[in-house]
Amino acid sequence: MSLAQSVLSGDRLALARLLTRVENDTPEGRAGLDELFPHTGGAHLVGITGAPGTGKSSLVNQLALSFRKQEKRVAIVAVDPSSPFTGGAVLGDRVRMRDLAGDAGVFIRSMATRGSLGGLAQATVGIVQVFDAAGFEVILIETVGAGQSEVDIARLAHTTLVVEAPGLGDDIQAIKAGILEIADILVVNKADRPGVDSTERALKSMLDLAHPVAKVFMHHGTPLVPPIFGVQNGGMSEGQGGWIPPIRRTVATDGSGLPELVQSIEEHAQHLRRSGDWSRRERARLEAEFELLLQQMLLARFHAAVAETELAVMLDAVQGRKLSPRAALEKLMEEER
Amino acid sequence: MTERKIRVLVAKPGLDGHDRGAKVVARALRDAGMEVIYTGLRQTPEMIAEAALQEDVDVVGLSILSGAHMALVPRVLDLLKANGQAQVKVFIGGIIPDEDTPKLKELGVSAIYGPGAPTEQIIADIHAIVADAG
Description:
The complex is a heterodimer of chains A (about 325) and B (about 130).
Chain A: H1 3-8, H2 12-23, H3 27-36, E1 44-50, H4 56-69, E2 74-80, E3 89-91, E4 106-112, H5 124-133, E5 138-142, H6 152-156, E6 159-164, H7 170-175, E7 185-188, H8 196-210, E8 217-219, E9 222-224, E10 235-236, E11 243-244, E12 247-249, H9 258-275, H10 277-305, H11 308-319, H12 325-336
Parallel strand pairs in A: 1-5, 1-6, 2-4, 2-5, 6-7, 7-12
Antiparallel strand pairs in A: 8-9, 10-11
Chain B: E1 7-11, H1 20-31, E2 35-38, H2 45-55, E3 59-64, H3 69-82, E4 89-94, H4 101-107, E5 111-113, H5 119-133
Parallel strand pairs in B: 1-2, 1-3, 3-4, 4-5
């Protein structure tokens, strides 16, 4: 039986081993992914991102507990940074996930970024595919403590949670584009702390800029909603197809606000399916994966075809300012054809 | 970057709440280029074995200062074996009386380090035992 077949039959050790091979991009790992790919597409991929210290790991812990109450099988992929100097890493997200120990319906895998930027590791896509094929219904993907540019998660996940917390310089952070624009749901965690109102206000004003929300005019005590807008304060817009990211307050250490957050996650999934965005996102993700694989394959082919010495000669020419880097590479590629 | 990384689980079983040693070792292993999964305090043998399986580690490092090593370590080793992970190497750091050392080694512990053991030694040993295991 191949490793992939064992994974499909529910063997947890085989699953763990295949994950390692996929992460290390070994021939066996690649073959496993090829074999498993037809079995993917069933899971709801939920990304959790946000600045360090906002409580992402604790929130993931609570989310997993909530989904377990619905008897959904949950996989967690927790990404932490590798040291750029030594390549080593301390992966500490499990410390906050002790509540999940001993539950066979949960599988946690920590991974290091191994030099990749953007908040995920290069192999995260493959790891998620393995979990998906293995039948996990919800896959929670926790990015490294991201700030402003880590938007890869939005490309991978169906539903992206951006986690904020009071007292982290929110007024300015919230204005910065990018990280907020990828949010399908905004979470204000540590909502028992002072400053939670101003954090929520800052996020809300940012959202109003990004998504022009219907203004509700009161007319003789009854709300008057302009017909082109269907939404008032987050959630689904009937008939319009737009999704306004709701803001949810949580306290991940005691689970407050979790039922509401889980409900928003489920509403978002329903919205994606109803509007057709589910398959559009899937398509965009596969396209991005194509692109990335194409780059890797072409690069490998180039290095296989061009001798180190040839490359060094060209590099000399470039360093001597006889050729531009682009012209040198064009020449090399020309010769290889 | 597709080179094989050594993955190490650093865990603290038992009830003593002192994890400075475990953290020092975790950091040293990271600086030696390894990926260290740190699980925190008060782990049961079951939690440790489960984490070792999910993370598919090569090595498990146990930090024990409570004196309960003769109860905890055999249990961890048994559970690793029961999970099909007999190949995972286990080392211990902490306060282990000399007379217990032969017994623990006989049970399958790869190495035991007392207070003040140089982290270079631990790193070299891990490289050696992982290379041995292929």
